[in-house]
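re: that complex we talked abt at group meeting.

here r the seqs, copy pasted straight from the sheet so there may be weird spacing, ignore it
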Amino acid sequence: MTIFRTDALREDLMDALNALRGNSTEVQVRSGAPAGTGGQGTLLAQLTGNVGGWGVSTNGVLTSNAITADSSANATGTAGHYQLNTSASVFLESGIVDTGGTDGVTIDNASIVITQTVQMNGNWVNTAAYDDGI
Amino acid sequence: MSEILGINTREVWEHRLSIATILIDRRGGTWVCQIWAKNNPDYMGKHTEFDRDTEGKPTGEGRVIPATPLAQPLETHDTKIAFEKGDERDCDKVKVCFEWFKSVRDKYALPNIEELKPEVAAIREIEEGLHELSRNAPPSEGALIFAQYKYDLDLLGGAS
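got the structure back, here u go
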């Protein structure tokens, strides 16, 4: 079944996502694959969402505000997935991180070394789909 | 002693001083506190592996490799507080969880915690400054990319 969404609905979806993530979101970079639960793999780095709020939702596109870097990575390993928690560590979501950019979040270099700084080069962008396709 | 406000994890837990991280999981219908080791085996989902010929092309039907077992928390505590839609930032509920995390925190401290405290305090101070810069930075669209570079200050003896 193919579902088509109005722009108003797409806007509401991203507004809800923005509110859910809130301010000072924990942005964790972990090894291994995501499993829909928190805590999997090794915690490599933890960045922090903007203290003023996750981002701005416009026309069905949610663009994050600046995310604070992890100034000292926690462990050495290969980045495989991300995990988002609220500022109080309530689990929100997890997803793939890879260098190919074909799915999930793109990372420039999946090899993370302990004590390195891990930062965002751009803002986190989520786009509400117009349709779910098949 | 500082009052727990139920707003930020750092009120009760600093993962850089611990062998573990904390998580609050509401997916089962109640607020469950979880303590996770920082180092768990990597999870890999079910997938198919193929033998390959000299040119690297897959041959045969392949073998289905089952998913690896999911890592489990070191410890959990079900607060029995019911999950309600939109309660992810309910400070009163978070406070209950934070009180439990604080009560078990010392069991998971790194063995050299006292040596690390000044260095972690320095990292926190730097990151507070970065938070303020981030707060004031205008949003801009761009490719979502994590990047890395060596940190200049020799905070933990390994950066260069």
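couple things i noticed - The helical segments of chain B are 91-104, 113-136. The first helix of chain B runs from residue 91 to 104.
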